[in-house]
Protein backbone atom coordinates (compact mmCIF):
# COMPACT_ATOMS: atom_id res chain seq x y z
CA UNK A 1 0.00 0.00 0.00
CA UNK A 2 1.35 3.44 -0.91
CA UNK A 3 2.29 5.74 1.91
CA UNK A 4 0.12 8.76 2.68
CA UNK A 5 3.03 10.97 1.60
CA UNK A 6 3.30 9.32 -1.81
CA UNK A 7 -0.46 9.48 -2.37
CA UNK A 8 -0.46 13.15 -1.46
CA UNK A 9 2.55 13.74 -3.70
CA UNK A 10 0.86 11.99 -6.61
CA UNK A 11 -2.27 14.05 -6.01
CA UNK A 12 -0.27 17.27 -6.22
CA UNK A 13 1.41 16.09 -9.42
CA UNK A 14 -2.00 15.23 -10.88
CA UNK A 15 -3.43 18.67 -10.10
CA UNK A 16 -0.29 20.30 -11.51
CA UNK A 17 -0.75 18.31 -14.71
CA UNK A 18 -4.35 19.50 -14.98
CA UNK A 19 -3.33 23.13 -14.48
CA UNK A 20 -0.48 22.93 -16.99
CA UNK A 21 -2.60 21.22 -19.65
CA UNK A 22 -5.37 23.76 -19.27
CA UNK A 23 -2.96 26.66 -19.28
CA UNK A 24 -1.71 25.44 -22.64
CA UNK A 25 -5.23 25.22 -24.06
CA UNK A 26 -6.15 27.65 -26.84
CA UNK A 27 -8.06 30.81 -25.94
CA UNK A 28 -10.86 29.91 -28.38
CA UNK A 29 -10.52 33.30 -30.03
CA UNK A 30 -12.19 34.99 -27.10
CA UNK A 31 -9.33 37.28 -26.11
CA UNK A 32 -8.88 35.91 -22.61
CA UNK A 33 -5.61 34.36 -21.48
CA UNK A 34 -3.94 32.88 -18.44
CA UNK A 35 -1.95 35.53 -16.57
CA UNK A 36 -3.76 38.53 -18.03
CA UNK A 37 -2.99 40.55 -14.87
CA UNK A 38 0.60 39.33 -14.41
CA UNK A 39 1.97 42.81 -15.10
CA UNK A 40 -0.98 45.14 -14.43
CA UNK A 41 -2.02 43.59 -11.10
CA UNK A 42 0.34 40.75 -10.10
CA UNK A 43 -1.48 40.00 -6.83
CA UNK A 44 -4.93 39.80 -8.40
CA UNK A 45 -5.41 36.06 -8.13
CA UNK A 46 -3.87 35.80 -4.66
CA UNK A 47 -6.13 38.58 -3.38
CA UNK A 48 -9.23 36.79 -4.65
CA UNK A 49 -8.00 33.45 -3.29
CA UNK A 50 -7.30 34.78 0.21
CA UNK A 51 -10.67 36.54 0.30
CA UNK A 52 -12.54 33.38 -0.68
CA UNK A 53 -10.56 31.39 1.88
CA UNK A 54 -11.48 33.87 4.60
CA UNK A 55 -15.19 33.74 3.78
CA UNK A 56 -15.08 29.94 3.46
CA UNK A 57 -13.61 29.62 6.95
CA UNK A 58 -16.53 31.62 8.33
CA UNK A 59 -19.19 29.94 6.17
CA UNK A 60 -18.37 26.90 4.01
CA UNK A 61 -21.65 27.30 2.08
CA UNK A 62 -20.05 30.24 0.29
CA UNK A 63 -18.19 27.73 -1.91
CA UNK A 64 -21.22 26.24 -3.71
CA UNK A 65 -22.72 29.73 -3.75
CA UNK A 66 -19.80 31.19 -5.69
CA UNK A 67 -19.69 28.23 -8.08
CA UNK A 68 -23.40 28.59 -8.82
CA UNK A 69 -22.99 32.35 -9.22
CA UNK A 70 -20.41 31.82 -11.98
CA UNK A 71 -22.73 29.38 -13.75
CA UNK A 72 -25.74 31.71 -13.53
CA UNK A 73 -23.65 34.66 -14.67
CA UNK A 74 -22.25 32.91 -17.74
CA UNK A 75 -25.63 31.61 -18.88
CA UNK A 76 -27.15 35.11 -19.02
CA UNK A 77 -25.40 37.71 -21.21
CA UNK A 78 -22.19 35.67 -21.00
CA UNK A 79 -19.57 35.72 -18.22
CA UNK A 80 -19.75 39.47 -17.62
CA UNK A 81 -20.76 39.98 -13.96
CA UNK A 82 -24.23 41.16 -14.99
CA UNK A 83 -25.49 39.03 -12.09
CA UNK A 84 -23.89 41.39 -9.55
CA UNK A 85 -25.81 44.55 -10.47
CA UNK A 86 -28.33 45.57 -7.82
CA UNK A 87 -31.74 47.00 -8.66
CA UNK A 88 -35.39 45.90 -8.84
CA UNK A 89 -35.32 44.60 -12.43
CA UNK A 90 -31.80 43.16 -12.59
CA UNK A 91 -30.67 39.54 -12.88
CA UNK A 92 -29.71 39.50 -9.23
CA UNK A 93 -33.32 40.08 -8.15
CA UNK A 94 -34.89 37.62 -10.60
CA UNK A 95 -36.47 34.50 -9.03
CA UNK A 96 -33.72 32.02 -10.07
CA UNK A 97 -31.08 34.13 -8.30
CA UNK A 98 -32.83 35.21 -5.09
CA UNK A 99 -31.14 32.51 -3.01
CA UNK A 100 -27.63 32.98 -4.44
CA UNK A 101 -24.87 33.39 -1.87
CA UNK A 102 -21.34 34.78 -2.02
CA UNK A 103 -21.93 38.40 -3.03
CA UNK A 104 -20.07 39.71 0.04
CA UNK A 105 -16.97 37.73 -0.92
CA UNK A 106 -16.98 39.24 -4.41
CA UNK A 107 -17.48 42.76 -3.05
CA UNK A 108 -14.69 42.32 -0.49
CA UNK A 109 -12.28 41.05 -3.12
CA UNK A 110 -13.14 43.98 -5.38
CA UNK A 111 -12.52 46.48 -2.59
CA UNK A 112 -9.06 45.05 -1.99
CA UNK A 113 -8.27 44.90 -5.71
CA UNK A 114 -9.30 48.53 -6.21
CA UNK A 115 -6.95 49.52 -3.41
CA UNK A 116 -4.07 47.56 -4.95
CA UNK A 117 -4.78 48.13 -8.66
CA UNK A 118 -7.51 50.73 -9.28
CA UNK A 119 -9.63 50.19 -12.38
CA UNK A 120 -7.78 47.09 -13.56
CA UNK A 121 -9.48 43.84 -12.48
CA UNK A 122 -13.01 43.15 -13.71
CA UNK A 123 -15.79 41.82 -11.53
CA UNK A 124 -16.37 39.12 -14.15
CA UNK A 125 -12.85 37.82 -13.60
CA UNK A 126 -13.30 37.93 -9.83
CA UNK A 127 -16.33 35.63 -10.15
CA UNK A 128 -14.43 33.20 -12.39
CA UNK A 129 -11.44 33.09 -10.04
CA UNK A 130 -13.63 32.76 -6.95
CA UNK A 131 -15.48 29.80 -8.48
CA UNK A 132 -12.19 27.99 -9.11
CA UNK A 133 -10.93 28.76 -5.60
CA UNK A 134 -14.20 27.48 -4.12
CA UNK A 135 -13.87 24.13 -5.87
CA UNK A 136 -10.30 23.77 -4.60
CA UNK A 137 -11.38 24.51 -1.01
CA UNK A 138 -13.90 21.65 -1.14
CA UNK A 139 -11.31 19.13 -2.35
CA UNK A 140 -11.82 19.54 -6.08
CA UNK A 141 -9.33 20.20 -8.87
CA UNK A 142 -7.53 23.42 -9.63
CA UNK A 143 -7.20 24.86 -13.10
CA UNK A 144 -5.62 27.87 -14.77
CA UNK A 145 -8.33 30.52 -15.16
CA UNK A 146 -8.16 32.58 -18.33
CA UNK A 147 -8.69 36.22 -17.43
CA UNK A 148 -9.23 39.44 -19.34
CA UNK A 149 -13.04 39.52 -19.25
CA UNK A 150 -14.70 42.90 -19.05
CA UNK A 151 -17.89 43.74 -17.21
CA UNK A 152 -21.18 43.95 -19.06
CA UNK A 153 -23.40 47.00 -19.42
CA UNK A 154 -26.77 45.25 -19.28
CA UNK A 155 -28.52 43.34 -16.48
CA UNK A 156 -32.15 42.39 -16.99
CA UNK A 157 -34.12 40.02 -14.82
CA UNK A 158 -36.20 38.85 -17.77
CA UNK A 159 -33.10 37.30 -19.37
CA UNK A 160 -32.90 34.71 -16.57
CA UNK A 161 -35.79 32.83 -18.19
CA UNK A 162 -33.13 31.08 -20.27
CA UNK A 163 -31.34 29.62 -17.25
CA UNK A 164 -31.53 25.82 -16.95
CA UNK A 165 -34.40 24.94 -14.59
CA UNK A 166 -34.91 22.00 -12.23
CA UNK A 167 -38.08 20.96 -14.09
CA UNK A 168 -36.55 21.10 -17.60
CA UNK A 169 -36.50 17.97 -19.73
CA UNK A 170 -33.12 16.62 -20.82
CA UNK A 171 -33.82 17.79 -24.38
CA UNK A 172 -34.46 21.33 -23.16
CA UNK A 173 -31.36 21.25 -20.97
CA UNK A 174 -29.22 20.02 -23.86
CA UNK A 175 -30.63 22.79 -26.05
CA UNK A 176 -29.87 25.49 -23.45
CA UNK A 177 -26.32 24.22 -23.07
CA UNK A 178 -25.82 23.91 -26.83
CA UNK A 179 -26.88 27.54 -27.21
CA UNK A 180 -23.81 28.38 -25.12
CA UNK A 181 -21.49 26.11 -27.09
CA UNK A 182 -21.60 23.38 -24.45
CA UNK A 183 -22.32 19.76 -25.37
CA UNK A 184 -24.06 16.87 -23.60
CA UNK A 185 -20.92 15.80 -21.75
CA UNK A 186 -20.49 19.39 -20.52
CA UNK A 187 -24.09 19.33 -19.26
CA UNK A 188 -23.47 16.22 -17.16
CA UNK A 189 -20.02 17.35 -16.04
CA UNK A 190 -21.10 20.81 -14.90
CA UNK A 191 -24.18 19.36 -13.20
CA UNK A 192 -21.64 17.47 -11.12
CA UNK A 193 -20.92 20.77 -9.38
CA UNK A 194 -23.98 19.84 -7.32
CA UNK A 195 -21.62 17.52 -5.41
CA UNK A 196 -21.01 20.48 -3.07
CA UNK A 197 -24.42 22.11 -3.49
CA UNK A 198 -27.67 22.34 -1.58
CA UNK A 199 -31.25 23.09 -2.56
CA UNK A 200 -34.18 24.64 -0.74
CA UNK A 201 -37.03 22.22 -0.04
CA UNK A 202 -39.37 24.34 -2.17
CA UNK A 203 -37.54 23.24 -5.32
CA UNK A 204 -38.04 19.50 -4.95
CA UNK A 205 -40.76 18.93 -2.32
CA UNK A 206 -43.33 18.33 -5.06
CA UNK A 207 -41.43 15.14 -5.90
CA UNK A 208 -42.06 13.83 -2.40
CA UNK A 209 -45.81 14.32 -2.09
CA UNK A 210 -47.57 15.53 -5.24
CA UNK A 211 -45.46 14.60 -8.21
CA UNK A 212 -46.60 16.45 -11.32
CA UNK A 213 -46.76 13.49 -13.70
CA UNK A 214 -48.55 11.14 -11.31
CA UNK A 215 -50.76 13.72 -9.66
CA UNK A 216 -50.61 11.93 -6.35
CA UNK A 217 -47.86 10.48 -4.22
CA UNK A 218 -44.10 10.58 -4.72
CA UNK A 219 -41.97 10.52 -7.83
CA UNK A 220 -41.64 6.80 -8.57
CA UNK A 221 -38.02 7.27 -9.67
CA UNK A 222 -36.91 8.04 -6.08
CA UNK A 223 -35.30 5.12 -4.26
CA UNK A 224 -38.00 3.94 -1.78
CA UNK A 225 -35.43 3.78 1.02
CA UNK A 226 -34.33 7.35 0.30
CA UNK A 227 -37.82 8.87 0.13
CA UNK A 228 -38.48 8.82 3.92
CA UNK A 229 -35.17 10.59 4.51
CA UNK A 230 -36.16 13.41 2.16
CA UNK A 231 -39.65 13.60 3.62
CA UNK A 232 -38.18 13.92 7.11
CA UNK A 233 -35.97 16.78 5.94
CA UNK A 234 -38.78 18.46 4.01
CA UNK A 235 -42.22 17.83 5.58
CA UNK A 236 -45.23 18.56 3.37
CA UNK A 237 -46.05 21.77 5.23
CA UNK A 238 -42.57 22.54 6.49
CA UNK A 239 -40.15 25.39 5.85
CA UNK A 240 -39.69 25.67 2.09
CA UNK A 241 -36.42 27.57 2.50
CA UNK A 242 -34.72 24.79 4.49
CA UNK A 243 -31.63 23.67 2.59
CA UNK A 244 -30.80 20.04 1.86
CA UNK A 245 -27.57 18.64 0.42
CA UNK A 246 -27.78 17.64 -3.24
CA UNK A 247 -25.11 14.97 -2.71
CA UNK A 248 -26.47 12.71 0.02
CA UNK A 249 -23.75 11.29 2.24
CA UNK A 250 -21.00 13.59 0.96
CA UNK A 251 -21.98 17.08 2.05
CA UNK A 252 -19.51 19.79 1.03
CA UNK A 253 -16.97 17.37 -0.50
CA UNK A 254 -16.11 17.58 -4.18
CA UNK A 255 -16.23 13.95 -5.33
CA UNK A 256 -18.06 11.50 -7.62
CA UNK A 257 -20.67 10.39 -5.09
CA UNK A 258 -23.14 12.77 -6.76
CA UNK A 259 -23.05 10.46 -9.79
CA UNK A 260 -23.28 7.23 -7.79
CA UNK A 261 -26.32 8.73 -6.06
CA UNK A 262 -27.96 9.32 -9.44
CA UNK A 263 -27.21 5.74 -10.43
CA UNK A 264 -28.90 4.62 -7.20
CA UNK A 265 -31.96 6.86 -7.80
CA UNK A 266 -30.96 9.18 -4.98
CA UNK A 267 -30.90 12.44 -6.92
CA UNK A 268 -32.62 15.28 -5.07
CA UNK A 269 -33.59 17.57 -7.95
CA UNK A 270 -35.77 16.20 -10.72
CA UNK A 271 -33.39 17.55 -13.36
CA UNK A 272 -30.47 15.76 -11.67
CA UNK A 273 -32.20 12.37 -11.60
CA UNK A 274 -33.20 12.76 -15.24
CA UNK A 275 -29.50 12.65 -16.12
CA UNK A 276 -29.62 8.95 -15.21
CA UNK A 277 -33.05 8.29 -16.73
CA UNK A 278 -32.13 9.60 -20.21
CA UNK A 279 -29.86 7.35 -22.26
CA UNK A 280 -27.96 10.26 -23.85
CA UNK A 281 -26.79 11.57 -20.47
CA UNK A 282 -26.73 8.28 -18.54
CA UNK A 283 -23.63 7.15 -20.42
CA UNK A 284 -21.64 10.05 -18.93
CA UNK A 285 -23.07 9.58 -15.43
CA UNK A 286 -22.00 5.93 -15.62
CA UNK A 287 -18.51 6.78 -16.82
CA UNK A 288 -18.03 9.23 -13.95
CA UNK A 289 -19.59 6.96 -11.33
CA UNK A 290 -17.60 3.86 -12.23
CA UNK A 291 -16.59 1.20 -11.54
CA UNK A 292 -15.85 1.24 -15.28
CA UNK A 293 -12.33 2.49 -15.90
CA UNK A 294 -9.79 2.44 -18.69
CA UNK A 295 -10.97 3.57 -22.10
CA UNK A 296 -14.59 3.86 -21.01
CA UNK A 297 -13.89 5.76 -17.83
CA UNK A 298 -13.83 9.53 -17.35
CA UNK A 299 -11.99 11.39 -14.61
CA UNK A 300 -14.51 13.78 -13.11
CA UNK A 301 -11.89 16.13 -11.70
CA UNK A 302 -10.13 16.45 -15.06
CA UNK A 303 -13.33 16.84 -17.09
CA UNK A 304 -14.86 19.29 -14.62
CA UNK A 305 -11.81 21.54 -14.88
CA UNK A 306 -11.97 21.42 -18.69
CA UNK A 307 -15.70 22.17 -18.71
CA UNK A 308 -15.26 25.12 -16.37
CA UNK A 309 -12.62 26.64 -18.64
CA UNK A 310 -14.97 26.15 -21.58
CA UNK A 311 -17.96 27.65 -19.75
CA UNK A 312 -15.81 30.56 -18.56
CA UNK A 313 -15.37 31.67 -22.18
CA UNK A 314 -19.10 31.87 -22.91
CA UNK A 315 -20.01 35.29 -24.31
CA UNK A 316 -17.05 37.09 -22.75
CA UNK A 317 -16.46 40.75 -23.43
CA UNK A 318 -12.86 41.76 -24.05
CA UNK A 319 -10.81 44.61 -25.49
CA UNK A 320 -12.92 47.75 -25.52
CA UNK A 321 -16.26 45.95 -25.09
CA UNK A 322 -17.93 46.57 -21.73
CA UNK A 323 -16.10 48.25 -18.87
CA UNK A 324 -14.10 47.65 -15.69
CA UNK A 325 -16.55 48.53 -12.92
CA UNK A 326 -15.37 50.55 -9.97
CA UNK A 327 -17.81 48.68 -7.74
CA UNK A 328 -19.32 45.37 -8.75
CA UNK A 329 -22.92 46.20 -7.86
CA UNK A 330 -23.34 49.20 -10.20
CA UNK A 331 -22.45 50.27 -13.71
CA UNK A 332 -19.91 53.08 -13.98
CA UNK A 333 -21.68 56.41 -14.34
From TrEMBL:
Domain named Plant heme peroxidase family profile: residues: 31-332
GO cellular component: extracellular region
Site label Transition state stabilizer, positions: 68
Cystines in this chain: 41-117, 74-79, 123-328, 201-234
Residues holding Ca(2+) 1: 73, 76, 78, 80, 82, 91
Pfam families the UniProt entry points to: peroxidase
Protein EC: 1.11.1.7
Major subcellular location class: secreted
Keyword Membrane carried by entry: no
Residue numbers binding Ca(2+) 2: 195, 247, 255
Record's signal peptide: 1-29
Residues the entry annotates as binding heme b: 194
Keywords attached to this entry: Calcium, Disulfide bond, Heme, Hydrogen peroxide, Iron, Metal-binding, Oxidoreductase, Peroxidase, Secreted, Signal
Database matches in InterPro entries: Haem_peroxidase, Haem_peroxidase_sf, Peroxidase_pln, Peroxidases_AS, Peroxidases_heam-ligand_BS, Secretory_peroxidase
Location of the protein in the cell: Secreted
Similarity comment: family membership: Belongs to the peroxidase family. Classical plant (class III) peroxidase subfamily. Belongs to the peroxidase family. Ascorbate peroxidase subfamily.
Reported function: Removal of H(2)O(2), oxidation of toxic reductants, biosynthesis and degradation of lignin, suberization, auxin catabolism, response to environmental stresses such as wounding, pathogen attack and oxidative stress.
Name of this protein: Peroxidase
Source taxonomy: Eukaryota, Viridiplantae, Streptophyta, Embryophyta, Tracheophyta
Amino acid sequence: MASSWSLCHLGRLHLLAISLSLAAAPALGQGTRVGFYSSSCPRAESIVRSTVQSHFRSDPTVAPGLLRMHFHDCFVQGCDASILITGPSTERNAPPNLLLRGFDAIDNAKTQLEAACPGVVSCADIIALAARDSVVLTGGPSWAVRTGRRDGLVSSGSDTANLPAFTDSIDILKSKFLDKGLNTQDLVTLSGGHTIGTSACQFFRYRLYNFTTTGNGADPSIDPTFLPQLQALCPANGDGTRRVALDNGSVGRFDVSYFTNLRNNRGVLESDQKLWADASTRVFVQRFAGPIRGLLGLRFDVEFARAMVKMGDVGVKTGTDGEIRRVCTAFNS
